[in-house]
Amino acid sequence: MSVKDCGHHHDERKKLVRRLVMAAALLITLLALVIFLVWAILHPTKPRFVLQDVTVYNFTAANGPPYILTSTIQVTLSSKNPNDRIGIYYQKLDVYVTYRTQQITVATLLPSSYQGHHDVTVWSPFLSGYSVPISPYLQQVLSQDLNVGSMLVTVRIAGKVKWKVGSWVSGKYHLDVNCPAYLRFGNPTGGIPVGPALKLQLLQSCHVETALGS
Fold it and tell me: Does the keyword Membrane apply (predicted)?
């Protein structure tokens, strides 16, 4: 075989490789375009969360240093999928309570679940924090709120969701839910436990954010 023939076959192989690469790129582009069009037509809507009630079993703050807070709270949360054609997979949902931006309970993992079109899911986890250190400033503000008999805490959910359209399932999206809860206790004094138990019906809508994540 001549050198010229070898060069000819080499050029043919290069052309074949280029065609295969171009075909693969075109296929990926078309697939991405189809997914985008389906996504745009279906117009997915974020799930809607509602904080239905809060039951306070214990809420005790130390009057002197070291300043610590112990709390046991049960919350009832509901989530509705408002989409007509899109299902939602909930994965690794952690729920906890914050007071003045400080986390005061340990994060509790909610069970993973799938939510069909217009389905409603309800969770009722217990959220507890034992001897959680707080700053002197936060203890002072907390004592003032308890003396007034009203305080604002936030029930937060952080996790991941996936969207399902037919047999197609999306990648993971970050889910961040914030549910403000105004607790009214009457007139407790000096960081004494509230209740033995106090159930508050709230039916408070929550703020929901989703963002594409890894």
Answer: yes
20 and 110 part of one domain? no
CA distance 56 to 126: 10
Overall pTM surpassing 0.85 (yes/no): no
> pLDDT 10s digit of each residue in the chain, 214 long?
555 555 556 667 777 778 888 888 888 888 877 767 666 655 678 999 999 999 988 888 887 788 899 999 999 999 999 998 899 999 999 999 999 999 999 999 999 999 999 999 999 999 999 999 988 888 889 888 888 878 899 999 999 999 998 888 888 999 999 999 988 876 443 333 444 677 888 889 999 999 877 6
Is residue 89 in a domain? yes
Backbone CA torsion sign across 192, 193, 199, 200 = positive
Residues 15, 97, single domain; the answer is no
Q: Taking the alpha carbons of 15, 18, 24, 29 in that order, is the dihedral positive or negative? A: negative
* Residues 37 and 61 reside in one and the same domain: no
Q: Is residue 187 part of a domain?
A: yes
Distance CA(174)–CA(91), nearest Å, equals 10
